[in-house]
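re the bet — no i am not wrong, look at it urself. input seq straight from the record:
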Amino acid sequence: MLHPAIRNYGYAIVYVLLFIVVTSAMALSLYPFYLHISLGWLLLDALVFAAIYAVIGIPLWMVIQFVDFSKYTVIQQVIYMVSLCLFTLFVWLAISYVLLYLLVPIDIFDVLVNAIFVRIVVGVLLYICVWQLYKSLLFGVNNEDSIIEKAPETPIDNSPKPMLEKVVIKEGSTIRVIPLQDIVYLQAEGDYVMIRTLDGSFIKEQTMKSFEQELPPQQFVRVHRSYIVAVAALKGVELYEKQQYLLHLKNGEKIKMSINGYKLVKQQLAL
C-alpha cells in the first residue's frame, strides 16, 4: 500500500500541515537559546530537518507496513522499535547536518550544530508520533474490516444490472475511457474511487458498492472494504499476521485483505 500522502490528497494536505507545524515548532524551540542568530537562519535550519524527516517518513511507512509483529515476543518488538528509532535518528541527523552545512555560513553552522540534544528529543517524539499514526492507519481500518458487516435487510431492486465493459472518467474538458482489462484494482477514497491501471491512477466520483455491482464478478473480486481487485492482476497470497493476509499483485504492489476477502479470492481461484 502506498504512503497515504502519495495516494490521497486529503492525507497529503495533512502531511504538509504537519510538516509546517514541525518546522515552526523546531524554530521556536531553538530561538530562546540562540537569540543572537536571526530567526531566518533558525527557520531554514528547522525547514531542512523537517523536510528530511518528511522524506524519511515514506520508507518508514513501508517498513512498518510489512513487519509482522505477531511473530515476535514483546521484548523482540521493543528491541525492533528502538533499533528502528536509532537508525531513523542517525539517518535523519546525518543527512540534515550535511545539507545544513552546505546551506548556511560556517559560523552559523558551528552554533547550530550544538543543538543536537534538542534535535534528538524532537526526533524521538516525532518517531513515536509517526509510529502510532502509521499503526493506526494501517491496522485500525483493517481490524474494522476483518469481518464485512452484513447489509441491513431492506427491500432492494433484484433486477439484473448490466455489467460494465469500460469505465469512463471525465478529466476537465476531456473524457478518458478505461477498458476493464487495463484495471489493476480500485481503492475507496471517501466519496470517490481511485482506479489503478497499467497507465497510472485516476479518480472517479462513484461508490465502491456500485462498482462491485456493475463489474463482472468473474473478472473482479472485492478483497476488502476499500479494495476491488482484478482477478487477472492476482499473483499470490501471503499470511501477514494472525487472521490477516496480504495480496500480491503482478505489478509488485501488495494489498491487505479481510478474512472474507481471502475466502472470496480462494473461491475465485478455485483453491
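see?? Residues 166-268 form a domain with the OB fold (Dihydrolipoamide Acetyltransferase, E2P) fold (CATH 2.40.50.1020). told u. also The helical segments are 4-7, 9-30, 39-65, 74-103, 106-112, 116-144, 208-214, 259-268. so pay up
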